Amino acid sequence: MRILVVEDEHRIGTSIKKGLELEKFAVDLAFDGRDGFDLASTEDYDCLILDLLLPGLDGITICKKLRELNIHTPILILTAKSQLEDKITGLDSGADDYLTKPFSFEELLARVRALTRRSSGGHNPVLKVGDLVLDTISFQVKRGNTPINLSGKEYSLLEYLMRQAGKIISKDQITSHVWNYDDDILPNTIEVFIRKLRQKIETPFKNKKILIKTVRGFGYKIEN
Fold first, then answer.
1. CB–CB of 101/120 below 8 Å?
2. For 170, which of 4, 152, 183, 219 could close a Cys bridge (C-beta 3.0–4.6 Å)?
């Protein structure tokens, strides 16, 4: 899953980015409101973490502009303000949840997970396709009773495919949800990672069904 963090305090923004990346999220980071709005309005994200007091363009204005553009990405606002009116203003502008600074990373992570589960239409942290199981809390992947070890990017790719099970997913969609904005993506990067996934979740299980299918000219899909 891909997250955009818009936070003008470099220490806080960088800390959030590093923490989320350790939790297998792809994360883009902007330090002012205009850059944040440009990214949020042109790139595809699963959640936005947005400070209210930003240079260039404040968080309330960003929320309103995104909703006016019919961009419904879940938004978690961060604010140093504790007054009830400020929280209500943020929610009324289109935000989905808020956190008051200072906050623990664990609470931020829990709220991000809740927002992304809600937006994907499910509340179960365990994803299943046939006998393939991915636990988004423990990051464990199994096929049947056999554990499967994945790299961080392999895990993120598999999670995205499983959340879209049965749907054809294009390479552009995969890139926008699994890789960061400034990642160096080569023309065959997606094919390489799909091949690595197949080698881990299919090749060792020769008597079981192929799960990841190539839809020539369109992309990939995972289904039982």
1. no
2. 219
- Over residues 80-131, the pLDDT tens digits come to 766 667 778 888 899 999 998 889 999 999 999 889 877 665 557 889 999 9
Half-sphere exposure of 47 (CA within 13 A, CB side): 26
How much is the pTM? 0.74
Domain shared by 85 and 12, yes or no: yes
Residue 102 preceded by cis peptide, ω within 30? yes
Residue found by looking up tokens 């002012």 in the block: 32
How are strands ordered across the β-sheet holding 132-135?
A: 126-129, 132-135, 141-143, 146-148
Q: Both tokens of residue 217?
A: 């000219």
Together in a domain, 135 and 54: no
Closest CA relative to residue 213, chosen from 192, 198, 200, 196: 198
CB 202, CB 210: distance < 8 Å: yes
Burial class of residue 157 in the structure, from the number of CB atoms within 10 Å of its CB (0-12 exposed, 13-18 middle, 19+ buried): buried
Last residue of a domain, one of 67, 87, 118: 118
Q: Containing domain of residue 177, as a range?
A: 124-220
The mean predicted confidence, pLDDT, of the chain is 90
Number of domains in the chain: 2
Choose the final residue of a domain: 68, 91, 118: 118
